[in-house]
Amino acid sequence: xxxxxxxxxxxxxxxxxxxxxxxxxxxxxxxxxxxxxxxxxxxxxxxxxxxxxxxxxxxxxxxxxxxxxxxxxxxxxxxxxxxxxxxxxxxxxxxxxxxxxxxxxxxxxxxxxxxxxxxxxxxxxxxxxxxxxxxxxxxxxxxxxxxxxxxxxxxxxxxxxxxxxxxxxxxxxxxxxxxxxxxxxxxxxxxxxxxxxxxxxxxxxxxxxxxxxxxxxxxxxxxxxxxxxxxxxxxxxxxxxxxxxxxxxxxxxxxxxxxxxxxxxxxxxxxxxxxxxxxxxxxxxxxxxxxxxxxxxxxxxxxxxxxxxxxxx
Length: 313
Prior knowledge:
It comes from Planococcus maritimus. Helix 4 crosses helix 6. This protein has 2 domains: 108 residues, NAD(P)-binding Rossmann-like Domain (Rossmann fold); 178 residues, 3-Layer(aba) Sandwich (Rossmann fold). 35% of the residues are buried. The protein contains 10 helices and 12 strands. It has a 7-stranded parallel beta sheet with strand order 8-7-6-9-10-11-12. The chain is an alpha/beta fold. The mean pLDDT is 96.
């Protein structure tokens, strides 16, 4: 059996795989797809496979995506060949939840202001700090990541309202609403956090009326995908004061162009799509992949976290 990694794990991680699966041929090649025609399994971040690649992958039966997002993959080509796709849904929850809390605490406790005063050698106690406790947060996408954010927010005394397609109950949410009824929840929110994937349903889901419904001092945070909000809608909401602050980890165009207005705006924090980054990322991905590979070798071709290429998640 041939397994092709289109990224290169650390040496100790490669050794772990080779020791656990001596009968498997592993190839660890950064974006080098020369062995695709013989690969039975491909492990990828999901951004480097094209329809042509899939066409020449004669033996390929399973693509393991070491990411949650699959929007850049050649969906039709993969579906046409009946290739199984799975991802590592859930492994991002710890770093992304910590990122969300870090940004919120920094803003509430005036850390950017304090750091700037230090750089300027200025003793200024007019921080205008506030607290998370007693506030309300609306979370678009209360799945594995959103629920972990909710758990941490609740520990800080924040009321959490989850928003998903159905409005069905989710962990660590005090209340739930559907996408359709989200406008009823947004006026209550001091904080709005989005961790939604990129799908047809979520494309430009948040529109001008959603930002108009938010408090004018609300903090909006997007850690999911940039196409949740049309860029011009986001820009106008910030320029007109419909919301108070935005923390943006994702954008419609990435990298964010150097001349984009966000760079010069005091009420925007630009995070270059790094909220999920962690030194433990690949280790956690392998913790998902290894049990699935054991099962695959035994004949179980139903890996955990299967992805429906038609739905996009």
